[in-house]
Design brief:
The chain has helices at residues 15-32, 44-57, 113-127, 142-150; strands at 5-9, 62-68, 71-80, 96-104, 132-135. The chain is α+β, with helices and mostly antiparallel strands. It has a five-stranded mixed beta sheet, sandwiched between helices. Helix 3 (113-127) links the parallel strand 4 and strand 5. The radius of gyration is 16 Å and the shape is globular.
Length: 164
């Protein structure tokens, strides 16, 4: 494959490729999970895709895919965060976007695809009024952590877990 990366908005023709990417990421996360709590169930491929679509499209979100010669090689999903009245008790609640998924297929990593996808999503979220963008990264995924740090993201809340 050449290096003809295009970033386009998701359409139904991308469905199976996006499901494949979601599975690829979950397999990777499960493989590096120290506690072995992340798993890949038989229902994951279809159900997680449905949940992602619902979350994105019910919250002013979008999904962008990266294509290389019409083959999907990456995707990013993001949406605008909705606050509740209770959130305002201890939080300013600025307009905020959430990047829920960023996946680049193994054979395309390190070539700038993730950066292009993030740039497109950041532009979309700022265009709809977001002042901040949040994302979560699995603690054991040091490569992703470093990638996001290099894009200017900072840790804000750290979850900790102990097996007892």
């Amino acid at each position: 494959m050449g290096n003809n990366i295009d970033i386009v908005e998701f359409n139904k023709n991308h469905t199976e490729a996006v499901k494949d990417l979601l599975v690829e990421l979950q397999e990777y996360i499960a493989s590096i999970d120290k506690f072995k709590l992340n798993i890949l169930t038989d229902e994951y491929r279809d159900r997680y895709f449905e949940l992602t679509m619902e979350e994105v499209y019910s919250n002013q979100g979008k999904i962008f895919v990266a294509t290389n010669n019409d083959c999907v090689v990456g995707m990013v999903a993001g949406y605008k965060v909705s606050y509740t009245v209770d959130d305002q008790i201890d939080y300013k609640c600025p307009p905020k976007g959430m990047i829920s998924e960023l996946i680049v297929s193994k054979n395309q990593r390190g070539g700038g695809v993730g950066k292009q996808l993030m740039s497109q999503m950041e532009k979309y979220l700022t265009d709809i009024g977001c002042e901040y963008i949040k994302l979560q990264v699995f603690a054991y995924n040091q490569i992703a952590y470093d990638f996001y740090k290099n894009l200017g993201y900072e840790p804000v809340l750290i979850d900790m877990l102990k097996k007892v």
